[in-house]
Design brief:
- It is built from twelve helices and ten strands.
- It has a six-stranded parallel beta sheet with strand order 4-3-1-2-9-10, with helices on both faces. Strands 6-5-7-8 form a four-stranded parallel beta sheet, with helices on both faces.
- α10 links the parallel β7 and β8.
Length: about 270
């Protein structure tokens, strides 16, 4: 058994949707999480900048001798996939697990993708979906405001601003007739109740954090990297800006007080 932690990173809070799923699916694994809150959002940056940030985030996680690196960030997974591919340790982004799940879930072959601008411009989800379902029609919509809503804790199902933004972004996807929608940024599953309400019960939402956690379990098992079944997993959280807002939102998302597990780090020391 391998006692080393799994490293998870995102531009901010969104990757906590992957951590939430991992805690349920992989309760014996230790997790080190880095949220680059000082430089969020990544989705509006150039590909070169995103690659630079991702490389620094990965370098930080590797200082913990992580047995697997998980990019819980849709933007990195799509716009900077080459950085993930160069990681020596087992690694994954959100694209492949979520695209495959959507391609298998759709009944009418019309799939929507909600992502950041960088994710949508990369066409990465569309390419991956067609590997499993060549007949799929993919409708992608950039939803930059949703990241800010999550980062500022505007996530209540009755929040007027969040509901209005979600409805506006969903409109072209629903008009195209999509029966399956990929929440192509790990921030977006946090808004899943609002998105589901706007989309209607007949639309299947693909939770990227959940699909990624399932894939992590598969990789750890295949590579004999699982921790002992008797071990209760622990989590450490690091951010590149003040911890208070991160902890406030994390408490809601994870259902626990993480203030004593969260600390600031200077990411520029890992350039």
């Amino acid at each position: 058994m391998d006692k080393r932690p799994v490293g998870v990173f995102d531009s901010g809070l969104g990757g906590l949707s992957t951590v939430r799923a991992m805690k349920k699916i992989l309760p014996n694994e230790d997790i080190v999480y880095f949220g680059d809150t000082g430089r969020v959002p990544y989705g509006s940056r150039s590909n070169e900048t995103i690659e630079t940030y991702a490389a620094q985030d990965i370098k930080f996680l590797r200082s913990f001798s992580c047995k697997m690196i998980v990019a819980a960030c849709g933007t990195v997974s799509t716009a900077a996939s080459s950085v993930i591919e160069r990681i020596q340790e087992p690694a994954t982004g959100i694209t492949k697990p979520s695209a495959k799940a959507a391609a298998l879930a759709t009944k009418n072959n019309i799939i929507g993708v909600m992502g950041t601008s960088a994710t949508v411009n990369s066409n990465a989800f569309e390419e991956e979906i067609r590997k499993t379902n060549p007949n799929a029609k993919v409708v992608s919509v950039a939803c930059p405001m949703l990241v800010s809503l999550v980062e500022n804790n505007w996530i209540d199902i009755n929040d007027e601003v969040a509901n209005a933004a979600v409805k506006r972004y969903l409109r072209p996807i629903l008009e195209a007739g999509a029966d399956t929608v990929i929440l192509g940024c790990t921030h977006f599953p946090i808004l899943a109740p609002i998105i589901q309400k706007a989309a209607g019960g007949y639309v299947k939402l693909i939770d990227t954090g959940y699909e990624e956690a399932l894939y992590v379990k598969e990789v750890l098992k295949e590579n004999n990297l699982e921790n002992s079944a008797e071990h209760k997993g622990n989590q450490q959280y690091f951010v590149s800006d003040k911890t208070q807002n991160f902890c406030d939102v994390a408490n809601v998302l994870l259902g626990e007080d993480i203030e004593d597990k969260c600390q600031f780090i200077d990411i520029f020391k890992f350039i």
